[in-house]
Amino acid sequence: MSIKCAMMLGDDDQFRETTDSRSRGAARAEARGPSVGVLSRKKRWRRFKWSVRIAVILFVIGYLKFVGFDGQFYYPNSKVYFQPEEFGLAYEDVTFPTRDGLMLSGWFLPARGKPKGTVVHFHGNAANISNHVALVHWLPAAGYHVLMFDYREYGKSEGHITRAGTILDGHAALDFALSRPEAKHLPLFFYGQSLGGAVAIVVAAERPEVNGVVAESTFSNYRRIAARHARGMVYFDWLSKLLASLTISSGHDPLDVVDRLAPRALLVIAAENDRLCFPELARELYDAAGEPKSYWLAPRAEHLSILDEHPRELSERMMAFFEQARTNNAR
Residue 14 belongs to what H/E stretch? Predict the structure, then answer.
C-alpha cells in the first residue's frame, strides 16, 4: 500500500470517527430534549394563544349577554303599502305620546252603525300599520272601532324599537283609546297578531281596563321561539336552547303573565302550518291561562293567512268571543 493510500485511509477513518462523535452528541442532545430557552418560548406562545382564545370567548359572551340578538325580532319600515280608503274605510290619522316622551302614530277606524266596542290592534313584527290594515279591515263593518298604531321606529312613530319599548307603546295606545269620546262606555278589547299577540297579553295583564284579548299566531316566550327556530340550524335540542339563552334576553314574556288575565277572557288562535310562530307555542299560552279561555287551531293555515283561508269562521269566532266577553263584563 502506498503512503498516499494509507494517508487517505487514515483521513477516512478520522472523518468517520468525527461524524460518529457528532451523531452521538446530537443523539444525546435529542434525548435530553430542547433547550430551556426553546421550552420557555413555546410555553409563552401557548399561553398567548390561550389568552387570545379566552379573550375572544369572553368578548362574544359579553356581546351576546348585553347586546344579543333581540333586534332580530323587529323589522320596521316606513313604506306605505295600503291606505284605509282602499278597503272602503273611513279613518283618522292620530298621534299620541308614550310615557317616555315619544310620539306614536296610528289610524283610528270608526265603526259603521251602532258601535259595539273598541279594538286596539297590535300588529306583527314587520313593516307598519299600512301593511296590516288588510287583516283588520272587516272589523268596522262588524260594529267595532279599531285603533291601529305603530310601535316606536315603525311607520311614522318616533324612537328606536326595543322589547320594553313595545310594552310602553301598548300602554300608550290603550291610554289613547280610552281617551277617545267614541270609546266611552264601550267594552275594549286587544287583538294581537304574531309579535303583537305577545305584547298585547303582557300589557293587558297589567291593565284591568281591557275586557278581553284575542292572540293570533303568537308565541309564549321569546327564548323559546328563538330556540325553536335555532333547531333548524343545530342538531341538538339542548344546544338550540343554550344558543337562545345566550343570544336572547329574558323578560316581558307572555307565558309569565297570561294567568293574570283571568277572569277576563282569552281567545288563542293558531295556524296549523305556521312555521314562524309554531302552534305548539300558542298552545302553551292557552294551557297556562285561566278561565274563561278558548283555543282554535285553524286547519291548513299558515302564518297570518287565517283570514284568507277561513274568513267566515275567523270572524264568527271573534264576534262570538267579543259578545261573550261583553256579557261577562256586564254582570
Answer: helix 3-32
Angle at which helix 279-288 crosses helix 222-230, to 10 degrees, equals: 150
Strand partners, 105: 95
d(CA 114, CA 111) in angstroms, rounded, equals: 7
Give me the count of residues in the chain: 331
172 contact partners, CB below 8 Å, separation of at least 6: 96, 97, 98, 99, 104, 149
What is the residue extent of each domain of the chain? Answer: 71-330
The DSSP call for residue 260 is G
Closest CA to 201 of 267, 125, 140, 139: 267
| Amino acid at residue number 314 | L
Which of 77, 79, 87 lies closest to 109 in space, CA to CA? 87
| DSSP collapsed to 3 states, 202-254 | HHHHHCCCCCEEEEECCCCCHHHHHHHHHCCCCCCHHHHHHHHHHHCCCCCCH
- Alpha carbon distance 247, 222 (integer Å): 11
Contact between 285 and 255 (Cβ < 8 Å): yes
Q: Write phi, then psi, for 227 (nearest 5 degrees).
A: -65, -35
Q: Are 84 and 107 in contact (CB under 8 A)?
A: yes
Fold held by 71-330: Rossmann fold (3.40.50)
Task: Report CA 207 to chain centroid distance, whole Å.
Answer: 23
CA gap 84, 86 in Å, rounded: 5
d(CA 240, CA 245): 9
Using only C-alpha atoms, what is the Rg of the chain? Answer: 34
pTM: 0.80
Tens-digit pLDDT profile for residues 225-282: 999 888 888 778 888 888 888 888 889 999 999 999 999 999 999 999 999 999 999 9
Give the residue among 146, 147, 150, 148 at the shortest CA–CA distance from 104: 150
Contacts 24+ apart (CB under 8 A), 39-44: none
